[in-house]
Amino acid sequence: MCGYSFLPRRLLLGLVIAGIAISPSFSSEPRGVSYMLLEGSTLTDECIICGRPPVTMPMRGTFQLVFREENPLFRTYDVRELSFYAPPGAPTYKATGEGTYEIGGEVALVHRMQLKAQLNDRKDIELSNDYTPLPRFWPMIEIDIREPDDPPDPSQVFYMHIVAAPVREIWFSTGTGLTSGTLNQRVSDGDLLSHTGRIVKTNQELVGRLGIMPMVPDLGLDAFDVAPGGEALFSIEENIFSETLGPLQHGDILSDKGRIVRRNQDLILPFGPMLPVPHVGLDAVQMMKDGEILFSIEDDVFSEKLGVWLGKGDILSDKGAVFRTNKELLAKFEPVNAQGDIGLDALHVWPNSEIWFSTEVGFESGKVGHVGQGDLLSDGGWIIFRNLDILQPFAPLEDLADFDFDALFLVTEDESQEPRIADAQIIVDAESGDVWIEWLSNAKVFQVEQADEPGGPYFPIGFIFPGMDFLDPAAALGKTKSFYRIREW
Fold first, then answer.
1. Of 357, 452, 455, 487, which is the most buried if we count CB atoms within 10 A?
2. For residue 480, what pLDDT is reported?
C-alpha cells in the first residue's frame, strides 16, 4: 500500500521554526503502482525472412500501472515509465515506452497489454496480445506480447514475455559477507541490503540501541520485518548480553528501538512443547496486518498440542498452528533429491496467498532444474530471482556461486491511496539551514520528496527507509520556500 502526504511549510531564513504541528493535506491524483520484472522475463529478436535462429535473452526493468477507468467488465490502466533492459552478459537491448493494460472478463479473468515502445534504434514498435487467461493471481502479471503478424520490419521482429510483481524494493541479508565492487567496502552478513545496490541499515544501526557494551559487535541478521510506525524488527545470529535488557537470544524478535518484541520461547509456547519450553531459534519472520506473527525455526521441536514434529522448513504461526509445511511450499517445484525438510531462511506472504521464500540448502527441481540456497522462490513453483542476479548491483568481488539469503522484506505497492500520516512537524535551524521533519503514521516505510512549489514537480531527496523522521541538510539555503511530501508504504 502506498500514498502521499503533503507537508507544505514556508521556510523563513533567519528564524527557528520549532514544534509546529502540521495537518497534512493529501493528493487525490492517481498514483502509479511500480512493477518489477522477475526471473523468466525475456525479449526475443527474430528474423522471419532470413531464417536465422531467434535470439532470446533475459530482461530486467520496471514499469508503472496507473488506473484510468473501469466498466462492468474491465479495469483499464495506463502503462507508464516503462524501462526494460538486457542484464550484463547479454546482448545490448533497451526498451522504453507506454501503453495500456486491461484486466477483467465476463466469465473468466483475462488480460491484455498494448505497448508502443522504442527498442534500441527502432521507434514506435507496437506489441500486444489477444485477451488471454491469467496464469498467476492478480496483482502478479505474466503475459506474452508481440508485434503483429505483418510487422513493419520482417528482418527484426520482437516478442516479450513479461513476468512482474508490484514491488518497489527487495530488502534482504546474505548468509555470507561480501566485498562490494560498487560500494568499495565490505558488506556484512548482518547488514540489511536493497536490490538497488545500497545498504538500507547496517548491523550497527539495527542493534545500536540494545544496550550491548562496550562496543556493539556485528551480530548477523537472521530475520527482518517492519512494524507499523517504521519500527525495524529482526533477529540476530548469536546470543549476547545487554546491559539494559539482559540476555538476548538469537531466536528473539528484537527492535531497532531497543526493546525485545517477543522472546523465542513465547513464539513456540502456543504449540505446547514439552516443558521447559526450548529455545529453537528464528530464521524468518513476518508480522501480518492482524498482528499474527508467521515465522520459521532453526531446530525441529515436537508439538504435544498438535501431535506432530515442527520442522525448520515449516511456516508457523504464533497462534499455535502450522501455516504451511515445508513439503507444501516445495510441492510445485517437484523436488527430486530433497531429503526431508530443507529449511526456510526467508519468507513473505502476499495478500493473494502466494508465498516468496528461500531455503537453507539447495535442491534439484524436476520443474526448473537446480535451485540454490540463496535463490528467491515462489510456492507457485517459480524462481523469482537467482542469488547472483539480485546481488549483481553490489558487484561482489568474491567468486562464489551463492551468497545465501537470510532475511527478506518487500516494499510492495497497491492501488490504495489511503493516507496514514496523522500528524507532522517541521523544524528549521536558521543558522545551518537544516530541516528536520517528524511525523506519526501506521505505515511501515517512507520516502521524502521535495519541491519548490506546492504543485511540484516533487523529487526524492532520500531513499526509502523505515522510520518517522528525516533530516534534509541545509535544505533552506538559497531558498525562500520549500515544500515536502512523504510517500508511505
1. 357
2. 64
CA–CA gap between residue 339 and residue 174 (Å, rounded): 24
For range 448-465, the mean pLDDT: 89
Pairing mode, strands 421-428 and 17-22: antiparallel
Judge contact between 170 and 224, C-beta under 8 A.
no
Q: Residue 246 pLDDT more than 90?
A: yes
Look at residue 367 and give its three-state secondary structure. Answer: coil
Residues 75/93, Cβ–Cβ less than 8 Å:
no
Of 87, 172, 94, which is closest to residue 404 (Cα–Cα)?
172
pTM higher than 0.85: yes
With beta carbons less than 8 A apart as the criterion, state whether 266 and 278 touch. Answer: no
Where does a domain end: 113, 140, 165? 165
Same domain? 158 vs 43: yes
CATH of the domain at 133: 2.40.128
Phi, psi of 97 (to 5 degrees): 165, -165
One domain, residues 391 and 288:
yes
pLDDT higher than 50, residue 13? no
Q: Are 112 and 132 in contact (CB under 8 A)?
A: yes
Residues in the chain, how many? Answer: 489
Grid cell of 321 as nine digits? 498452528
Letter for the amino acid at 13? Answer: L
**Whole-angstrom distance, CA of residue 246 vs CA of residue 398:** 37
Taking CA atoms, 473 is separated from 425, 460, 470, in Å, by 16, 14, 10
Cell of 198: 545500497
In this structure, the answer to whether residues 300 and 331 fall within a common structural domain is yes
What values do phi and psi take at 326, rounded to 5? -60, -35
- Stretch 322-344: mean pLDDT, rounded? 92
Residues 153, 181 within the same domain:
no
The whole-number pLDDT of residue 209 equals 95
Q: What is the pLDDT of residue 12?
A: 33
Which residues are paired to 122 by β-bridges? 119
